[in-house]
C-alpha cells in the first residue's frame, strides 16, 4: 500500500516537487527498483485472454516476460537498473498482511460466484486481486537477472527501505516504485511508472523529497509523522482525519504527540495501543544492509545460458530471446557513458529572458554613450 494518498497531498501542497519526464531523459542514471512491486505488475499486466501467460507445462511466465522486456527497454534508454527484493516483513506489518489475506479470501468467494454466473469481466477483475508474488517467482526473476547481467540486492526487510538507503549512499540516483513510502524512508528522488509498458504511454513521474519538504515547510521528522497520520503499512490511521486535516494538524502541532494532546477524542477515534512510535522508528532507522558495502556490477549478458533458461526451460521464442540479448550487449556499451551533470556542477543559472533583456539594455547604453569594449580585429 505504501502511504495512503501521499501523491495527491504532494500534488496539492507541493506541486513543483512533481515532474513528468520521458524515459530517454534518464540516460546514464542508476536506479534501484522495488522488484516485488514490478513482478506484481507483470503478473497482472502481462496476460493473454485474461489469464497469466503460461508455458507448455502450465508454469506461469508473465513475470519473466515482463522483467525481460521492460529491463531491456530501460537499458536501451541508458538506464542502469538494480533490482531490490524484499526480505522478511517487519512484525509491525502483520496487521496489514492480515488485511490483505482477508481481502484475498473475499476475492476468492467473489471469483467463484462470477465463474458460476459466467461474468467474464468480473472473473478477470477478481482473478487479478488474487495475484500474489511467491518465493518461486522471485527466485526465477533473480536467475533471469543474473543471466542478463543486471545486479540485484536481497534486502533483509523492506525493499523500499533498502532502495532508499542506496540513494542516500549515492549508489543510485532514484528509487523506481509505485509505493510512495520510499520518500518516507528518505529517498531524495522517487520515480513512478518506470517499469510500465511502453504501450501505455504513461510519462514517468519524478518526486523530489527536498522540494516536498521545502514547499510544505516540513522537516523530515514532521513529514514522517504526516505519513503515519495519512496511513501506512505499520499501523492504522485515526478515523475521521483525512489528508487535509492531517497536514493542518502537523503544521500546527509539529508531531503526533502534541496532536494527541490537543485532539478532540470524542470527534476523532484514536486506535487503542496505536503504535505510531514504533512506526516512526521503522521509517527513521529501518533494517537495511549497509549500502556503502554493496557493490553493484552490470555485466555482459550470457546469451547461451539465457537460451538454455528462457527457451529450453521456460518455452520462450528463441529468436526473441537472442534478439533481446543482443540489444542488452549493444546498449551496455552506450550506457557506460556518463551524464554531463555527473562531471559538472551547475552553480548558477541565468534565464534566457533575463539574459536577452540585459543584452538589449547593454546595447542601448553603448549606442547612447559610444562607449564599451571593442574586440580587437
Automatic annotation (TrEMBL):
Annotated XPG N-terminal domain residues: 1-107
Region (Disordered): 325-377
GO MF annotation list: 5'-3' exonuclease activity; 5'-flap endonuclease activity; DNA binding; magnesium ion binding; manganese ion binding; RNA-DNA hybrid ribonuclease activity
Coiled coil regions, renumbered to chain: 97-124
Record's signal peptide: none
Start-end of Polar residues biased regions: 331-351
Required cofactor(s): Mg(2+)
Residue ranges annotated for the XPG-I domain, each copy included: 146-218
InterPro entries in the record: 5-3_exonuclease_C_sf, Flap_endonuc, HhH2, PIN-like_dom_sf, XPG-I_dom, XPG/Rad2, XPG_CS, XPG_DNA_repair_N
Entry's Gene Ontology BP terms: base-excision repair; DNA replication, removal of RNA primer
UniProt entry keywords in alphabetical sequence: Coiled coil, DNA damage, DNA repair, DNA replication, Endonuclease, Exonuclease, Hydrolase, Magnesium, Metal-binding, Mitochondrion, Nuclease, Nucleus, Phosphoprotein
SMART domains, per the entry: HhH2, XPGI, XPGN
Family stated for the protein in its record: Belongs to the XPG/RAD2 endonuclease family. FEN1 subfamily.
Function: Structure-specific nuclease with 5'-flap endonuclease and 5'-3' exonuclease activities involved in DNA replication and repair. During DNA replication, cleaves the 5'-overhanging flap structure that is generated by displacement synthesis when DNA polymerase encounters the 5'-end of a downstream Okazaki fragment. It enters the flap from the 5'-end and then tracks to cleave the flap base, leaving a nick for ligation. Also involved in the long patch base excision repair (LP-BER) pathway, by cleaving within the apurinic/apyrimidinic (AP) site-terminated flap.
Protein name per UniProt: Flap endonuclease 1
